[in-house]
């Protein structure tokens, strides 16, 4: 399947997982299964892309220029994007679960989830800031 098609499937599909996270309080166990299914599927896609395209790839992880060179092929750029999608959703799931177990109102968590979807680490940081402001221990 062409990288552009895989990109569209991954991008569109993962939105269902994020919608589920937005509805987390309604069915936490179901949402956990759904929100784990997407990163698992993305992990399989990632591994397939890397295994099929890593050999002979130009670039490396030792310099910024080397990393940029790795992402000059569509398949490895897609692998990098899928990596982001999978891990951001896992962070989103952690946020939803940590908030629930610490009694943080879900309405306050929704902006953190939105930021995590769009800007990964900024969403994580906003949730840690929220938990700290509410004096909740989310890393215990």
Rg to the nearest angstrom?
Answer: 17 Å
Query: How far apart are the first and last residues' alpha carbons, in Å?
Result: 43 Å
Q: Output the helix-strand order.
A: HHHHHH
Q: Helix amount, in percent?
A: over 70%
Please work out how many helical segments DSSP would assign: 6
Query: Quick one: how many beta strands?
Result: 0
Mean pLDDT: 95
| Largest sheet properties | none
Strand content: under 5%
Find the structural class using helix and strand composition: mainly alpha
Mass-distribution shape: elongated
Unreliably modeled segments: none
Structure overview:
There is one protein chain. The model has no long low-confidence stretch (mean pLDDT 95). This protein starts with a helix and ends in a 7-residue tail after the last helix. Helix 4 (74-101) packs antiparallel against helix 5 (106-119). It has helices at 3-22, 28-53, 64-70, 74-101, 106-119, 121-133. With 140 residues, the protein is mostly helical. 77% of the residues lie in helices and 0% in strands.
